[in-house]
Amino acid sequence: QVQLQESGPGLVKPSQTLSLTCTVSGSSITTYPYYWSWIRQPPGKGREWMGAIDYMGSTYYSPSFKSRTSISRYTSKNQFTLQLNSVTPDDTAVYYCARLLRRYGNIWSDWEKYDYWGQGTQVTVSS
């Protein structure tokens, strides 16, 4: 059984940095060929892929987030993290971490290819 759990503050002030951690159990984040993604869903909107880190630690980012997003990993804790800088209220969303079975070219938003998801964590950007 593979489990992913998001954690971090539920409230962030505008202009600050949103920081989340995904803790993985039952599957090593260094195991080929898995990719580990951050996905979010704003209220009333569809899911959007933000970025991923692969089994080697290489990162990949959506053009929509590349300029202010950083994904890192801590292999000793089997965790990977998300930092989203300069947040605004438009960044309010449920944030998910999820495992992608492998790389599918440059397609990252075929949600059926993600076999495990965290429960999601609500993040509100407000002063």
Write the layout of secondary structure elements.
Elements: E1 3-7, E2 11-12, E3 18-25, E4 35-41, E5 48-54, E6 59-61, E7 69-74, E8 79-84, E9 93-100, E10 114-117, E11 121-125
Parallel strand pairs: 2-11
Antiparallel strand pairs: 1-3, 3-8, 4-5, 4-9, 5-6, 7-8, 9-10, 9-11
Quick overview:
The protein has no helices and eleven strands. By secondary structure, the protein is mainly beta.
Q: Please, could you describe this protein's structure?
A:
The chain has 127 residues and is mainly beta. It contains no helices and eleven strands. The protein has strands spanning 3-7, 11-12, 18-25, 35-41, 48-54, 59-61, 69-74, 79-84, 93-100, 114-117, 121-125. The strands form two sheets. Strands 2, 4, 5, 6, 9, 10 and 11 form a seven-stranded mixed β-sheet that branches. β5 and β6 (59-61) form a beta hairpin. 30% of the residues are buried.
Distance between the termini: 39 Å
Shape, principal axes of CA atoms: globular
Roughly what fraction of the amino acids lie in strands? over 45%
Low-confidence stretches: none
Name the average pLDDT. 98
Number of helices: 0
Helical/strand content category: mainly beta
> Major sheet: size, sense and barrel closure?
7 strands, mixed
